[in-house]
Structure formats: structure tokens, C-alpha cells
Amino acid sequence: MAEVEDKRIRRTKKLLRQALTRLMQQKDFQSITVTDVVREADINRGTFYAHYRDVYDLRDKIETGMIEDFRGMIAAIRPSETVTLKLVLSRLMDYLEENREIVTALIKVNAPDGFGKKMIGVIEECRMELLPYRSVEDAYAARFLATGVIGMTEKWITESQPIPKTEMVSLITKLLTPLVPQSDAAQN
Fold it and tell me: Which Pfam families does UniProt cross-reference here (predicted)?
């Protein structure tokens, strides 16, 4: 019985996520209400509140889940492969492309702690983990690199006809390679 409930919960959350995505494509996030979401998802208002406090909580949970997915992808690389800038970028681009609709909608929300900022944090953490010694300059360089990568991927994901994913990965790698210490650049 618990498995059936889990499936129902997963289905409900998926419906809510899809509903919020569609609504965010139609209007500003700040104007979206719980009523809008439950109508769009065709579910009961009480069901919504069984999982989320409000639409902000729903958006936050979606973002957090996506960030956890991406962290998991990076962690999965570590045991079996050498973590390189190109490999991390490829995985990032694959993930963004697979989730293009929700990512595009989330990027449009200008929240101070929004999806773009969270993704910058993940890339920054990944960069710092690759450094054997971490200086203050390394921390600033990691932020600089992460901000550039996320800025470029945001532009790519929101374009109506973006360049091919492999070209985007190559472009970002080409731009960042001179900025990455030689020990890391050799791994690219």
C-alpha cells in the first residue's frame, strides 16, 4: 500500500511541477496563486497544501530537487572518471536540455536566491573541490568561473534556436581553459 501512495505522491508532485511550469511560461511568477496551480494541475487545493505551503515553497522544492539531481550527477562522475571541466559542463548541459521548460521558467524568476544563484553555488563548489590548495583568490576565481558558466548556459537554454550542445560545451571550455590552473587544464 505504501508503494501505491508513493506513486500517487510522485504523480501529484509531477502534476504540480508541470502546472507551475506552464503558468510561469504564461505570466510572472509573483502573480501565480495556489488557485491557479491547482486549477492547472486539476487537483484538490487540500492536496496541494498536503505537500507545499504556497507557490514559493513549490518553486523552492523544485529548484532544490534539481540542484540535488545535478550534485548527484557530479558525485556519480567522481568514483569512476576523472572530473574535468568539459565532463561537468557536458553533464550540466544534458541536464538543462532535458529540463529545458522548467529551467527556462525558473531562470525568468528574479529571486535573490533563485535557480541561477543556486547553480552558481554548485559550479563554484565543484571548482573548489578540484583545487588541492584553496586560497582567497581561488574562491573569487571559482565565483567568476561559475558566474560565467551559468550566465552562458542561461543564455543558451532560453534562446529559441540555440547552438548545438556540443558546440556550447566546447565554447565554454575554450573560454575557461586559459583561466584554469595548468593541472586542471591538462585534464580538459
Answer: TetR_C_8, TetR_N
Question: Are 161 and 107 a contacting pair, CB within 8 Å?
Answer: no
Dist. CA 96–CA 65, nearest whole Å: 13
Contact criterion met (CB below 8 Å) for 87 and 81: yes
| CA–CA gap between residue 128 and residue 125 (Å, rounded) | 5
Say whether both 47 and 112 belong to one domain. no
pTM: 0.80
CB contact at 8 A, 42 and 54: no
Name the stretches of the chain with pLDDT < 50: 1, 182-188
What's the rounded Cα separation, in Å, for the pair 105 and 58? 13
User: 120 is in which domain, residue-wise?
Assistant: 55-185
